[in-house]
Amino acid sequence: MLLRNCWYVAGWSHHFGEDGLVSRTILGDPVVLYRKGDGGIVALEDRCCHRLAPLSRGRKEGDDLRCMYHGLRFAPSGKCIEIPQQDIIPPTAVVRSYPAVEQDCWVWLWMGEPALADPKLVPRALNHDHPDWFMQTGELAYDANYELINDNLLDLSHLSYVHQSTLGRNSMSWGESRPRTTRFERGLRVERWVVDHPRPAYLGLPAGARSDMWASYDYVVPGVFLLATQSYAPGAAADCGMQAPTAEPDWISSTSQAVTPISERQTVYYYSSCLSRKFATEEYSRQQMAVIERAFAEDKAMIEAQQQVIARTPDARMLRLSSDGALNQFRRLMAGLIDAEGRLGVAQPTAAE
Ligand code: FES
Ligand SMILES: [Fe+2]
Fold first, then answer.
1. pTM for this predicted structure
2. How many CB atoms lie within 10 A of CB 225?
3. Contact present, 66 and 72 (Cβ < 8 Å)
4. How many whole angstroms from 257 Cα to the centroid of ligand 1?
5. How confident is the model over 226-283, as pLDDT tens digits?
6. How far apart are CA 127 and CA 136, in angstroms?
7. Burial label, 337 (beta-carbon count in 10 A; 0-12, 13-18, 19+)
8. 95 CB under 6 A from ligand 1?
9. 70 CB less than 6 Å from ligand 1?
10. Is omega for the bond preceding 222 within 30 degrees of 0, making it cis?
11. What confidence tens digit (pLDDT) does each residue in 283-292 have?
């Protein structure tokens, strides 16, 4: 099941140029996106109401979109405003329009009831397009249900195993750390010290350097991961009594990631890597992103293989461990919201991808 009354990332701002039409499928809905003359984003159902041709094969005319099958012209509201073959435009000549917000270099769409679309619910990405930070961006398509990706991001003990040779750095520090989880209205905060962790070899640091790293993230509905990490000399975690640090770190980084379901079985994942210019160079920022991309290929291989096992044996039960606390809480939070929508009668997608 998929949550509809929610903002979903439809792409990076740079995916949407001044000209051109971009087609996406989100929650099973085909959507065409383009920019108006003032730069604002229009998102319409990518299916002409006449003979169901994709509007993404159409043509932008000013701020409007013309279907290039038989020429119906649509305003950004989705209302048809011209039918070349007749003078009367029936009130049913309309395609769905999706509320869109562009914030922090991401374009977000509200996939549910438009009257409920509240821009204040768009999560704030960390340090995107900020002059004090280097930023790298990427995206990855998954043949997997979005919840498996949420689960992965809500249990970072996997860094010591899946990412043994990349982010885990051949250390058990992530795998053995005990996070603290706090619930808030539309998400969870997960905080931990990763103690005595090897520092990366690619950031101009001496070989064998180690740190205590404070890693804190918010995980927000429907699957937005906002992680900030701060590094200190070994011993810092004990000095803080394993509580949140207050001293100035010697290294900081952040990443924001968004999980967008295409359908029940396909997902797109958008991610950034940001390094503070106070400590890093642009070259370090590129090196860090190269490692992250290798790591995310490791996640993809594991999660898609897991999805195949689940598809072959759908009745197999999962064993619950204490390390599953955050992901189980988040699954319950999502299930509660989806259940509440069901009681309100919000339609689920019908078009299988
Ligand atoms: S299908 Fe779009 S105008 Fe006919
Ligand atoms: Fe991972």
1. 0.94
2. 25
3. yes
4. 37
5. 999 999 999 999 999 999 999 999 999 999 999 999 999 999 999 999 999 998 999 9
6. 11
7. middle
8. no
9. yes
10. yes
11. 999 999 999 9
